[in-house]
């Protein structure tokens, strides 16, 4: 019979890995995830179950999908600064996007 997996530990370990990759302190990570410091620490240590709505909020704040916590792959994150750039570009209208594309194309030719 396969050994059972403690989902608290799986999510906690992944949170810790993400925190280390981001070079955040426990307090910074808790703030980034929108959680109270003590609550976050218990989740990361695998001592508390995390509700689905809380896990969704953490996922949204870290720009990862909900299934990220259950996949067995390497942790790869998009930096927040890159996320902000994507959001800004996506908020531009068609005319501004075409202008930006023209600038980038011209820059590429000069470079």
Tell me about this structure.
This protein has helices at 7-22, 26-33, 37-44, 52-62, 80-91, 94-110. It is elongated, with a radius of gyration of 19 Å. The chain is built from six helices and no strands. The mean pLDDT is 84. α2 (26-33) crosses α3. The protein is mostly helical and 111 residues long. The chain folds into two domains: 1-77, 434 Repressor (Amino-terminal Domain) (Orthogonal Bundle); 78-111.
Number of helices, counting only DSSP H or I runs of 4 residues or more: 6
Helix content: 55-70%
Give the SSE order as H and E letters. HHHHHH
CATH superfamily of the largest domain: lambda repressor-like DNA-binding domains
**Highest CATH level, the class of the largest domain:** Mainly Alpha
Number of strands: 0
CATH topology of the largest domain: 434 Repressor (Amino-terminal Domain)
Question: Judging by the overall fold, what is the CATH architecture of the largest domain?
Answer: Orthogonal Bundle
Q: Enumerate the spans where pLDDT stays under 50 for 5 or more consecutive residues.
A: none
GO molecular function: DNA binding
Protein name: Transcriptional regulator XRE family
Domain HTH cro/C1-type: 15-69
Pfam family, one: HTH_3
